[in-house]
Amino acid sequence: MHWLPPQASTFASEIDFMFWVILVITGIAFVIVEVGLLWFVIRYRHRPDRRAYYTHGSKTAEIIWTAIPAATVIVLGVWSGRVWGEIKRRDRLPANAVRVAIAAKQFEWNVTYAGADGALGTPDDFTVRNQLHVPVDRPVVVDLTAEDAIHSFFVPVFRLKQDAVPGMRIPVWFEATQVGEYEIACAELCGLGHYRMRGMVHVHTQEDFDRWMLARAAGGEGR
Amino acid sequence: MTTAAVHHEAAAGGHHELSFVRKYIFSTDHKIIGIQFLFMSLFFLLVGGLLAMMMRWQLGYPGKAVPGGGVLPETMASGGVILPEFYNSLVTMHGTFMVFFAIMPLLVGVYGNYLIPLKIGAPDMAFPRINMASFWIAFGAGIIMLAGFFATGGHAAAGWTSYAPLSARSDLSGVHMGQVLWLVGLIVLGLSSILGSMNYITTVVNLRAPGMTWFRLPLSIWALFITAILVLLAMPVLSGALIMLLFDQTLGTHFFDVSAGGQPLMWQHLFWFFGHPEVYILILPAMGIVSDIIANGSRKPIFGYHSMVFAIGAIAFLGWIVWGHHMFQSGMNPMLGTSFMISTMVIAVPSAIKTFNWMGTLWRGNIHFHTPMLNALAFVSMFVIGGLSGIFMASTPVDIFQHDTYFIVAHIHYVLFGGSLFAIFGAIYFWYPKMFGRMMSERLGKVHFVLTFVFYNLTFFPMHFLGMTGHMRRIYDPTQYEFLRPYQGTNRLITVGAFLLLASQLPFIWNFFWSLRKGAKAPLNPWRDNGLEWTVPSPPPHGNFATTPTVHHGPYEYSSPLTTDDYLPQNQEVRP
Fold first, then answer.
1. Where are the domains of chain B?
2. Which residues in chain A are closer than 8 Å to B396, comparing Cβ atoms?
3. ipTM of the predicted structure?
4. Contact call for A4 and B469, based on CB within 8 A
5. Domains of chain A, residue spans
6. What pTM was computed for the model?
7. Nearest chain B Cα to A161, which residue?
8. pLDDT, tens digit, for every residue of B116-165?
9. What angle do CA B315, B302, B278 make, to 5 degrees?
10. Nearest-5° Cα angle at B253, B248 to B255
11. Class of domain A94-217 (CATH, top level)
């Protein structure tokens, strides 16, 4: 069994690294508590001649086990805040990104491309159902909207998830690092077809992407 | 800090014999009401469990007919195979029943009612008739909730969180009547909770026996008291949101429908503003109960009593400013996410204090492994897993990936089953002798405990691994996705674990009903506990105490040097 899925975006490795660091920290806490519990339970099990040690606690011990978790979570919090800002802050979207729009509706992802002029909202825009084509090694900004219920745009290999909410236009970005085809899933219960609201991301080399875009913009077929 | 014991009608009511109906059905006795809640919520616990089995079958064996599924109507299953729309109802109603009709009433309804007056030395609740109303209102809510399964269009199917606009527009969900019944059921239940909690608060504040100062209250009572405050502040917010959603469904308002100027995220804010305190409503009383049982089992005072009280208060307070952590990926401004993340992280601190204090209580104890103690120890060891796994989702970047996957499903079950439910089992075994005057079988209790502990972990631990693969929650058929197909074996393993977990409850059910009639007669104080409830007969008479007790000690004076016994009841005066 694999642990986490393959990584195919620039921030995937950073998110995974945080995951593993938290796993190590929580793993240490887990072992301390469970081994401690097991040890105490065996060591201090009832014996006819035993009398429990009468104490109401220890200030020193309590200060220690308050301070250490507090320091740990504050460090984790500050670090998380920084990485989170890099990925999700809307005032930090990468410049010179490819821009596409995705309108989610029951139960499909409608991807609108800018066409030859490279700008969305112009007559040469075109829409493809469930297929997101992007170039590799270039930031892509997706303008996410929803037409009916709330959906959630989830690309596991990119470690990217963002709800699409009716009435909101939410920009999210990613930069793919591996050419290939990856699944898009809906991660928010959106109705009876939620489980099959599946799409694909096609990550092309820049040349292939340009070629596909030209062919499609000219009204060609190319998926 | 003196408290006057207030005598009222309930104390006087014990003199003449009550009719059967007034004694056992429309009873104003807090003990009978607690027992009524116990039967009702155990029934819903079973219903919720059975719904989960159907979900697990579909996930483990997608597209295969449920064994015995032929009895399900066409609207739920076709040829015994569960339909996607019914699956969504199963997801919704499993969560709804477990949270609102099983765990919450088991802790607050049963033990809030049963323990508060007995443990503080009061003859009954401050408002016995309101107390009776709170049970019968909850009962009505349960009937309304069950009725939804027979509604045209099926039961509510928008998840127990009922995110709008899916829950607001029947053209999106295909469900109208079921959703309406769901909303009405919860609004009615909310009324019951509000009545119950104001009763608990009043009772704890006003009816403590002489000498029962605030810092002589058992931690179970502290936890139930603070929980009642949480309920009183959180429930009305949910009720308000539910009423708005009900208006959207029935009166054509558009609070949550963007096409007419509504705002879908407002539902999430309102729901989670209630919903996160609700999480603590479901765990704080369990923590209190476990503290009582661990001190008793260790024959030792609870380690750091005062910091335990402050930790309950801190968790409850922080519980109000973390609701946004359910909404990191919701489209809420990411800057806001950061502040919610920090407050969420900080909750780890009081939780750690509690955990280490439980360990400190065990340290150098004289530990007796009665069934309640085993369940309390399971609570600590499993709650730790649930608490620690929460840190993953609290970290906003990690949450981007883990959000709405099986990782969160594992997390919530480690808190609500590994935590709350083990505490509830411990509480049932511990106070059963007092409630029914008979002992449960220790042997069957231990069999039930071991089987439940093993199969519980077999069911829920692998869900962490599924979550790590990105496996979404609430999907009807994981094999639709190529990246999930390799993990179908894990899904099947979980399903087998879940069936075994359900089967493991048979010894409990047998033990519970068999002991009602055939269990050994319970002595006054079978666990040699310090609580006031153990100074009165099992079961206690209407009015509880023949004379109002006077309290001389804190609740955890085990192995005190003042006595040669290893316990010292709270009302026992020691003369030097």
1. 9-535
2. 80-81, 83-84, 88
3. 0.95
4. yes
5. 12-88, 94-217
6. 0.95
7. B400
8. 999 999 999 999 999 999 999 999 999 999 999 999 999 999 999 999 99
9. 25
10. 75
11. mainly beta
